[in-house]
Amino acid sequence: MTSRSIRSLFAILGALILVIAPGAIASAHSSVVASSPGSLETVGGEVVRVDLIFNDGVEQAEMELEAPDGSIIPGTVEQRANNWLRYGFEPLSIEGQYVLRYSFISEDTDPVSDARAFRYSASAPEPFEITSSQLQPSEGPSIVFWIVSFVGLAVLAILAGLLAERTRKLRLVRASEEPSSTAVD
Known about the structure:
The protein has 2 helices and 9 strands, in the order H-E-E-E-E-E-E-E-E-E-H. The chain is α+β, with helices and mostly antiparallel strands. It has 2 domains: 3-24 and 144-175; 31-140, Immunoglobulin-like (Sandwich). The strands form 2 sheets. It has a 5-stranded mixed beta sheet, with no helix packed on it. Strand 6 and strand 7 form a beta hairpin. The longest helix is centred in the C-terminal third of the chain and has 35 residues, at 143-177. The mean pLDDT is 82.
């Protein structure tokens, strides 16, 4: 194998890593798989909690709810299950957008911070209630990871095929340039 072929092979491997790594990293972090109220949902009635369910377990959670006027609504954080957090508070009364900010340590010990917004309007329907029967254990890597991995492997296969074809052509060219050893004097 020539040094050019080796460089090409390393370039292919580098490209594969660049394609697959972001998907693997993205699927490695905990993320919200269900919430009540839902992100950007408008809810009404007596809203006294926000529930978040994650794809992995969470620890050391902190949460705060910001009202439309910018004030922080006092409440309590309750860990209902390994991957279920609830922020409970007095019933909402100010109409407008609320922002729930949260941070925690994920099951793989990474710190995670994020926020979700929802709107409150007294006349809107109440948010659905999350129950323990809706909890599902983590099922491994997300579909995004598998799609990115598949595309990355397809790119690798195409690049490997191109490299093999290029190597074959280079060998043919070199073979045609070599003097024939069967020539008769």
